[in-house]
Automatic annotation (TrEMBL), chain A:
GO cellular component: cytoplasm
Species whose genome carries this gene: Fomitopsis schrenkii (Brown rot fungus)
Record-level Gene Ontology MF annotations: Rab GDP-dissociation inhibitor activity
PANTHER family from the UniProt entry: RAB GDP DISSOCIATION INHIBITOR, RAB GDP-DISSOCIATION INHIBITOR
Recorded superkingdom: Eukaryota
Protein name, UniProt field: Rab GDP dissociation inhibitor
Any Gene Ontology biological process: vesicle-mediated transport
UniProtKB/TrEMBL annotation, chain B:
Localization per Swiss-Prot or TrEMBL: Cell membrane
Alphabetized UniProt keyword annotations: Cell membrane, GTP-binding, Lipoprotein, Membrane, Nucleotide-binding, Prenylation, Protein transport, Transport
Lineage of the species this protein comes from: Eukaryota, Fungi, Dikarya, Basidiomycota, Agaricomycotina
Membrane disposition: Lipid-anchor
Predominant place of localization: membrane
UniProt-recorded Gene Ontology molecular function terms: GTP binding; GTPase activity
GO BP annotations listed: protein transport; vesicle organization; vesicle-mediated transport
Region of interest called Disordered, as start-end residue ranges on this chain: 169-208
UniProt source species: Fomitopsis schrenkii (Brown rot fungus)
CDD domains to which the protein is assigned, alphabetical: Rab5_related (cd01860)
Record's keyword annotation contains Zinc-finger: no
NCBIfam families: small_GTP
The protein's name: GTP-binding protein RAB5
Family matches, as SUPFAM superfamilies: P-loop containing nucleoside triphosphate hydrolases
Cellular compartments per GO CC: endosome; plasma membrane
Length: 449, 208
C-alpha cells in the first residue's frame, strides 16, 4: 500500500475490470480494490450463501435447492450479443481463454397474451404466428431493404435517407403493422421504449443488422452466455490485469476519496492508510451513490430505477418448448407501459444452478411507486415460482467528466438486455482517463507447447 | 496405444517462494536469479510423457500476483485437476501459508483434486527452517504428495510434475473435465475466436 500507482480502481464490476485489464495491458500501474470479499460488485454472480446473505441475512438456503457451490446467480440479467462489442473485446484481449460460452437457446416475444419465438431461420419465419401472410411479405421486403443497404449506392436506398427520415417513416414506407413494429423495434433492435421511432432511422438500422448478424452466428439466438455465470467476465478481465502487473485487494474498506485543496484527486483512504495515485476510477457506490460526499459534492445522480426479480423455478418457462435458456421480451405497448419488461432465464446447462432448477430474472425500468406490480406480467409467464428475490436499484450517472479532478466514475448497469452500453461506458471512460480513443490491439500471448 | 490427456494445474503459495521460477524451470528449463514478479505470461503448458507413452499435458495457471492480498478469483480454482502448493524451505512462515492455501483448496476446488506440497529453494539447505520430516508428516496427514525442489538447480522439478502426472486419473475423460477451459481442443460450447475472422454485419443473410 505504500507504493504510488497510476490508477486506483474501486469496485470489481465488469466495467471496472475491463478498464483495469486494458489499462494494465497499456502499461499503467493499477491497484484494484473492492469492499466485498468477492469479485463482480453489482455484476457479480453469487452462490446461495452469498445470495441469502445479501437478500435474507437471517435465513439459510433450503437444502432442497442443492449444493451451494453449484450456484452462480447473476445480479444483473444480461446476455452477450454474439457479434457485439463485448465479444470483440473478449477476443482481442484473448480473455476468451479463461471462459467457455454456450448459446442462449431462444429469444421470445410477447404478443396478444402469449409468447412466440423470434424466428431464427426462414423456415421459422414462414411458420411464425407473429405475422399474417401479407404482413410477412411486407416484412420480407423491409428486411431485404436493410440487408441490401449500401451507403455508397443510392440505388439501394429506395428513396430513404437513414440520417434524416425517422424510423416511423421507414416503417410506414413498407406498410408494417404496429404489432410488427413492436416486434422489430423491441425484440430485434432491443429498444426499451418507443422514443426511437421519432428519431432518424440509422441507429435502429444498425441495431437490427447487429441482431440479425448475431443471430446468424450460432443459429438459435443472437446471444451467448459464459458457463458459471456472468460473474466470470469481471474475474477474467481482473486476471488479465493481474497478469500485466495489476494488484488486487478484495475485502478492503474504502473510507474516503482524498483530494487536494483544489478538489483534485490525491488518493484513497482505507482505515489509516492512504494509497496515492494519479487517477481514480470507480463505480457509483464508492462516490456517494447519489448523496453528497466529502466537501458536500454530489458526484453521481440518480437517473432512474430498475426493478429486478430473481426467480427460482423448478421447470422451464411454459411456451418456450422447454428451452434451457431464453430471453423473453414484453414490448411496452403490449402491456400498456412506457418501458419493456424483460425475462432472462438460464439453468444448469450453463452451470449456474442445480439440475432441474431454472433461474429467471424479470426486470424493467420503474415507472410507478409500486414497482412490484409493474413486473407482474412477466412473473405471470413463469408458472409456479419456487422462490424470488426482489431488488430495486438506482441507476447512477456521474455529474462530471472527471477531467478536472481526475475522478472518473462509471455508470450503473442499466435495464438493457445486453452489454453494449457497458462497452460504451468503458470506451467513454477510457477516453476521459487516457485522453485518446480506445484502440484494441491483439494481445501477444505466450503459449508454450 | 498412446493416450493424450490434458489437465489444469494451479500454482499456489506465498509471494516470492518461487512459484513462477518453478514453472519456468519445468516449462523452459530456465532460471533467472532476479526474476521480477510475474508479468505478462502466466498461461503456460508443458507435456510429460509417461512410461506407457501416455502424454499428460499440463495447462498451468500462475497466480499472477493475485495471491498477495488473498484475492484469487473462484475462476482460478474452477476445474483444476491438480495443484502445486509451494513453500520456501528457508522460511517456516511460508509453510504456514501453504497450509492455509491447502485449506482453501479443500474448500473451493473439486474434491478429487490432486495436491502436491512442494518445498522449493532446496539449493539453500544451509538456511533451512523447514525440516523434511515436518513437511512430509503434514503432507501424509492431509493425503498430499510431497517433494522438495530447486528451481535454481532444477533438482526435483521434473520429478514432482511427473509424479503428479502419474497420480492423475489416467482413465478420466480429461477432455471433458480439464479442457473445459483448455483451449480449442476440448471445448463443447461456442468458440468466439472462430467467428473473429468471419465477415461481420451486412453481408450475412438475414434470418428473419
Amino acid at each position: 500500500m505504500d507504493e504510488e500507482y497510476d490508477v486506483v480502481v474501486l469496485g470489481t464490476g465488469l466495467t471496472e475490470c475491463i478498464l483495469s485489464g486494458l489499462l494494465s495491458v497499456e502499461g499503467k500501474k493499477v491497484l484494484h480494490m473492492d469492499r466485498n470479499d468477492y469479485y463482480g460488485g453489482d455484476s457479480a454472480s453469487l452462490n446461495l450463501t452469498q445470495l441469502y446473505r445479501k437478500f435474507r441475512p437471517d435465513k439459510t438456503p433450503p437444502t432442497e435447492l442443492g449444493r451451494d457451490r453449484d450456484y452462480a446467480v447473476d445480479l444483473i440479467p444480461k446476455f452477450i450479443i454474439a457479434s457485439g462489442e463485448l465479444t470483440r473485446i473478449l477476443v482481442h484481449t484473448d480473455v476468451t481463454r479463461y471462459l467457455e460460452f454456450k448459446q442462449i437457446a431462444g429469444s421470445f416475444v410477447y404478443r396478444d397474451g402469449k409468447i412466440s419465438k423470434v424466428p431464427s431461420t426462414e423456415m421459422e419465419a414462414v411458420k411464425s404466428p407473429l405475422m399474417g401472410l401479407f404482413e410477412k411479405r411486407r416484412a420480407k421486403k423491409f428486411f431485404e431493404f436493410l440487408q441490401n443497404w449500401k451507403d455508397e449506392d443510392p440505388a439501394t436506398h429506395q428513396g430513404v435517407n437513414l440520417d434524416r427520415d425517422t424510423m416511423a417513416a421507414v416503417y410506414e414506407r413498407f406498410g408494417l403493422e404496429p404489432g410488427t413494429q413492436d416486434f422489430i423495434g423491441h425484440a430485434m433492435a432491443l429498444y426499451l421504449d418507443d422514443d426511437y421511432k421519432t428519431k432518424p432511422a440509422r441507429p435502429a438500422y444498425e441495431r437490427i443488422v447487429l441482431y440479425t448478424s448475431s443471430m446468424a452466428r450460432y443459429g438459435k439466438s443472437p446471444y451467448i452466455y459464459p458457463l458459471y455465470g456472468l460473474g466470470e467476465l469481471p474475474q477474467s478481465f481482473a486476471r488479465l490485469s493481474a497478469i500485466y502487473g495489476g494488484t488486487y485487494m478484495l475485502d478492503k474498506s474504502i473510507d474516503a476519496i482524498v483530494t487536494d485543496a483544489n478538489g483534485k484527486f490525491v488518493g484513497v483512504r482505507s482505515g489509516s492508510e492512504i494509497v496515492k495515485a494519479k487517477q481514480v476510477i470507480g463505480d457509483p457506490s464508492y462516490f456517494g451513490a447519489g448523496k453528497a460526499t466529502d466537501g458536500g459534492k454530489v458526484r453521481v445522480i440518480e437517473e432512474g430505477k430498475v426493478i429486478r426479480a430473481i426467480c427460482f423455478l423448478k421447470h422451464p418457462i411454459p411456451g418456450t418448448d422447454d428451452a434451457d435458456s431464453a430471453q423473453i421480451i414484453i414490448p411496452q405497448n403490449q402491456v400498456g407501459r412506457r418501458n419493456d419488461i424483460y425475462i432472462a432465464m438460464v439453468s444448469s446447462t450453463h452451470n449456474v444452478c442445480s439440475k432441474d432448477v431454472y433461474v429467471a430474472i424479470v426486470s424493467t425500468i420503474v415507472e410507478t411507486d409500486r414497482p412490484e406490480q409493474e413486473i407482474v406480467p412477466g412473473l405471470q409467464l413463469l408458472g409456479p415460482i419456487y422462490d424470488k428475490f426482489i431488488s430495486v436499484s438506482s441507476l447512477y450517472t456521474p455529474t462530471s467528466s472527471g477531467e478536472s479532478d481526475q475522478i472518473f466514475i462509471t455508470r450503473s448497469y442499466d435495464a438493457t438486455s445486453h452489454f453494449e452500453t457497458v462497452v460504451d461506458d468503458v470506451t467513454n471512460v477510457w477516453k476521459r482517463v487516457v485522453g485518446k480513443d480506445l484502440v484494441l490491439k491483439k494481445r501477444e500471448v505466450e503459449v508454450e507447447a | 496405444m498412446s493416450k493424450q490427456l490434458q489437465f489444469k494445474l494451479v500454482l499456489l503459495g506465498e509471494s516470492a517462494v518461487g512459484k513462477s521460477s518453478l514453472v519456468l524451470r519445468f516449462v523452459k528449463d530456465q532460471f533467472d536469479d532476479y526474476r521480477e514478479s510475474t508479468i505478462g505470461a502466466a498461461f503456460l503448458t508443458q507435456t510429460v510423457t509417461l512410461e506407457d507413452q501416455t502424454t499428460v499435458k499440463f495447462e498451468i495457471w500462475d497466480t499472477a500476483g493475485q495471491e498477495r492480498y488473498k484475492s484469487l478469483a473462484p475462476m482460478y480454482y474452477r476445474n483444476a485437476n491438480c495443484a502445486v502448493v509451494v513453500y520456501d524451505i528457508t522460511q517456516s512462515a511460508s509453510l504456514e501459508k501453504a497450509r492455509s492455501w491447502i485449506r482453501e483448496l479443500q474448500r473451493q476446488a473439486d474434491p478429487s483434486i490432486v495436491i502436491a506440497l512442494c518445498g522449493n529453494k532446496a539449493d539453500l539447505s544451509a538456511r533451512r527452517q523447514v525440516s523434511q520430516e515436518e513437511a512430509k508428516k503434514y503432507a501424509d496427514e492431509e493425503g498430499l504428495m510431497w517433494g522438495e525442489t530447486s528451481a535454481k538447480s532444477g533438482e526435483g522439478v521434473q520429478e514432482i510434475f511427473t509424479a503428479i502426472a502419474k497420480k492423475l486419473p489416467q482413465n478420466a475423460p480429461a477432455s471433458a473435465r480439464a479442457s473445459g477451459r483448455a483451449g480449442p481442443s476440448g471445448r463443447t460450447g461456442v468458440d468466439l475466436n472462430k467467428q473473429a475472422n468471419a465477415i461481420p454485419g451486412q453481408n450475412e443473410p438475414c434470418n428473419c
